[in-house]
Amino acid sequence: MGAGRSGKKGVWMAIVFEGLVSTLGPDGTRHLAPMGPRFANGEGDAFFELAPFQGSSTLANLLSHPWGVFHITDQVFFFVKSLLDQPQVDWLPADVIQGWIIGGACRTLEFQVIASDLSAQRSRLTCQVVNRKHLREMGAFNRARHAIIEGAILYSRRHLLNPVDLADQFARLVPLVEKTGGEDEKTAFELLRNVLGLGKNDQAVDRS
Hints:
- The relative contact order is 0.14.
- The chain has a six-stranded antiparallel beta sheet with strand order 5-4-8-11-12-7. The chain has a two-stranded antiparallel sheet with strand order 1-2.
- It is built from six helices and twelve strands.
- Strand 9 and strand 10 (100-102) form a beta hairpin.
- Helices cover 27% and strands 28% of the residues.
C-alpha cells in the first residue's frame, strides 16, 4: 500500500478523493476550498482525514468552528471558482450542521472535526461524518476535467513551488484540455491560468 496516514484509532487513511470543503469563518463568512480528504476504505467511511496547510483559511475556520461540508461534484468549474476571493456559487443551508452546501454538488458529507494534530506544516484533522446526502447522479469525467482539478491543486501548493516549476507543471496540462475539453472546460482552464498569473506562452521546461 502507498503512503498513507493513521487516522481514528490507527485506521490507515489511504484513499484520497478530490472535492471541495466549505467552512465558516469566525464572522460567519463562507469559505470554499478544493481539498482531498483521506479515507481508509472509501467514501462510505464514518471518519476521514483533512490535511490543510498551516496558515490556510480552511484550517483557521475549522479550529474556530469545527464543522464543514465535503462536496463531491463533476462540475470542475467549482474547483476554479473556489480559488477566487468571492466564488459565485449558489449556497444552500446544510441539513444537520451550521454550514453550507454548494448547489450543483452530487454528494455531500457534513462533518465535525473531532481531533487535530498541528505539529507539521500540513495539519491533520480527524473528521467524523454526521450526515450524508445524495443530490444527483455523477457525470462522466474526461482528461480535461482531471487536468483542471490538478491545476487547482497546483494553486493550493504554489507557495511550495518556484515560478519555473509552477509554469512547467501547468503547461503539461494544456494538451489534455485542448484535446479532450469542451467549451466549459476550456473556459475554466483559462480562468485558472489567469488566477495563477500565467500567460499563454508559458511553456514546459525541457528537463531531458
